[in-house]
Each structure stands twice: as structure tokens, then as C-alpha cells.
Records
---
Amino acid sequence: MLTEHRKPVCLSLVSTDLPVLSVVDAAARLSQKDSNRFHLVLTAPSNKSSQEAIASGTALEAIAPTSPRTWWLEISPNRVIMTMQGNAQLNYRHIWKQGVSGSSRYWLPTESSPPNKPISLRNFTNILVLDGHPLPRNLRVEYELWAEKVQLGRYILNLEIQH
């Protein structure tokens, strides 16, 4: 049962305890794999220049490169996998499951580490909610990011799909 829809979406990430905020508005392809499994692919437009981002006070945009970024999300009521690629500075993959420690991997191209060797972190998903039927309208994932025994912040990922 493969159906595909083109939908406007808003993908946001905010930290509840750090100055992190990122919002992407873009068109996405939403594919229905079966009754409660979906794939969503979106490509974000290029960011503002670093100077514009610094002037507007959005520090996260200031460190992000201007190349397009592509996200793949595999969505179900029990699990979300999000992969971001196509960015020369940062790639990552998160796996979230309600009430379970998942993995978060980041690939940073640096001269000090071998290429394609990820930084592996743990996440703990406090809340994973998928709303909407037959197509999802909203996904909310609240999670903590951990490196060993050090918490690296609490985050809320929100995906709104317009219908």
C-alpha cells in the first residue's frame, strides 16, 4: 500500500534548557508504507548567511552551513528514525522509541578524526506522540541527549504536516 503526497511541513527543534532553536519550513514528500508507517523526505532551503544569522541572534544558524539539507524520517506510532544528510559540515541519525534509550550518531568532518567515524550518543525518549488519521498531522518527540553519564540537554522535536 504505497501512496505518496506532497505536503508543506514545519520541522522544529528546541532545547528546553539550552539556547537551541531551529525551524525549517519546506515542502515534503509523505509516503504511506502501510496503515501506520510513513516515510517523509524534505529538503530545506539554504540558510541565511552567517552575518545575517548573527545579526538576527540565531546562533544555531550562524554555525550551520548554507548548503541544502535533506531529512528522511521513518515514522510510526512506536518509533521514529530521522536521518539528515547532504550537509558538508554535519550529518546525523537519531532513533527514538517511547520510554527507551535509543542512539544518536553525528558525523562531523574534521581533520582529527577518521572520515565516516560517528560520534555516538544516547537519547532517552520521554514522549513520542503521532497524531492524525489516516495521514499524520503532528509528530512530537521529547527526549534527553546523553554522552555516557553527562546529560547534553533536553529537546523537543515537532513536525507539523499541513493538509
---
Amino acid sequence: MDWETDEEFYAWVETLAPCVVCADKFWRVDEGAKGKTCPQCLNANRQFRRHNLTRPRVNAILRAQDDTCPLCGQLGGDSSMEGPSWWQIDHDHGCCRGHASCGQCVRGLLCRDCNARGLAWYEKLPDELRTLEHVNMYLADPPARRPEAAVLFEGDLRGVRSRDGSFAGWRSKRPLQSSSE
């Protein structure tokens, strides 16, 4: 968009509402059934639904992984100069074929390189050639299936952790209140 004056630009900025998920006010938002959501959160929500996961569950898995890729240790990223770098939801293709899953076979959230180039290649190797111990440990005990990856804290309910590892500071470590209290 081209604006003739600064006033036109600031008038347009005033019309932007924060995203209902991440509260980011710098993205154009689209009116949806559940309010205004930025494109990044819409993409993340689509990915979660495709794997039968909820945003709190994905946040809990990332918390259990310390907001890093369990294979290479890299932090995830948001839309940056290099483009969007969403976490990739890794699932056992022996259970669910294709790009979607039942949710029960989700193993963890990997960076794009580890999911597409690393793990996919490694799993096609014969057993005798699978000698990378850290990858074998990931496959034997995936982070998403550990007890600490359950939705346990109030911070798991807020935001979209999968957008950026820098969101690690906003999460609350306060345990969820049980419904019996």
C-alpha cells in the first residue's frame, strides 16, 4: 500500500487489532470464526489440526524439548528474513502415512532440516546402518510421549510457542489448578 501522508499510514495502523492468539499487532489480521488471527498463527493452527493436536499440547511438547530441536539442538524460528521456519511435527509414518497423523503417533517437533533431510533419510536405512546414538534415543523415547510433555502449566495454554523459541520467557511455570479444588 502507498500512503500519501503519514497521517494516512497511522490511520491505517490504528485499524489493526492484535491477533487473538499471539497478540502481535504488527501483522495484518484476517477476521475468522474465532476472531482476528495473524497469518502465522493461522498456519500454525492448520498444522496442529492436521496432526490432531491442540495449541496447548504443542506448547507442552516444545516446553518438554526446551524449545529446541531434539536432534540438532537448534532453536525454532519465526518469519524472518529467510522466510517462515515453522517447527515440523514429526510422527511415526508406520502408524499414519502422509502429511497428517492421528495425534497418538506424534514423536516431537523438529526443525525443518532434521525432519525433511535428517530423520526421513535415517529411517530408510537398514537397522545395521542406524548407528547415530542420539537419533536412536529420540526414536526409542520421543519427547512427545514423555510424561513431562503433557499440558501441565498455565503457560502451555497461552501464545504460540511454536512460532519462536524467544517466547520461552513468557510462559508461566504455575501448575494448572485441578478441577476438584
---
Amino acid sequence: MTVAVETGTWQLDRTASTVALRHKTMWNLVTVKGTFATFAGQGEVRPDGSAVGTISLDVASLDTKNAKRDTHLRGADFFDADNHPEITFAVRSAELRGSDAVHVVGQLTARGVSRPLSFTAALRDASADALTLDVEFSVDREQFGMGWNQLGMIRGLTTVTATLRFTRTAAA
């Protein structure tokens, strides 16, 4: 990535990271916001400066501050957490473009359905031991088998935002 970002293994710092989603409902009158409390991730910066890795989210940890809605979201109409407890994003490549833009290409898997996904993340800071990425992208939940839409209330894309802080794993 940059000269300051060392090759090797990097671990997601869950205490300094956040993953959230938002989706307009009720015919775009209300925005539902939620955060994932439990997630994990790791990556590897290769000698050529590119990176690969994986982020996984625990579906059961999604919290929208409404217990009834959260139960519905975890159920078969949406994430189907009993059968698909994790959402994963496998990073196939991440490459620095310019001074702070990271082009990310990978595979998003939710509810057992995988789709290619690419986006540009912002490299907020980087040092020899830590780096932080700000991420935002949108997905069509229907492409992942989440088509429930009572009375046409839920249309459009879901936006995912994340601040991901990675720390370098000490060499063995």
C-alpha cells in the first residue's frame, strides 16, 4: 500500500472499528440504522504492496435499537441467521491508488449467496504498525435472497459503512 505499511499479517482491531448499515423504509420516509457488535477480520499485505483478507460479521449481533425488528431481520425473511450466521467479505485485492484511495475487489457473501463487489475505501492513516480504512458501499439486498417487502415499504439499496482499524501482527 504505502511505504509505511509493512508486509505481513494484519489483524482487525474490533475495539477501534465499527460496521453499520442503513436502509430507507416506509416509502423512503424512515431510515433504519443498525450496527454489528461482533465481527472479525484479518489481512495480509504482500511484498508488492497489494493486500488480501477477510472480514466476517456475526448476523445475530445486528442491533437496530428495536428488538422486534432485529428478530425479524435475523429471521428467514432477511438474513436467516439460523442457517447463515455470518456475512463475509473476502478481499481478493486491495491496492493503493493515489495517496489515500484504496481500490478493493472482493466477494460478499450473505444468506449463502455470493456476489462480486468492488469499491474505493479511504486510507485515513497508516503507520508501520496500524492503518485505518473508511469504507462505504451500497448493495441490493434482493440479490442476496432478501426480497421481503411488505406493501412496497422497503425499496432501494442498503448502505454499509465501516471504519476498520488494522494492527500489524508481530512476526514469529
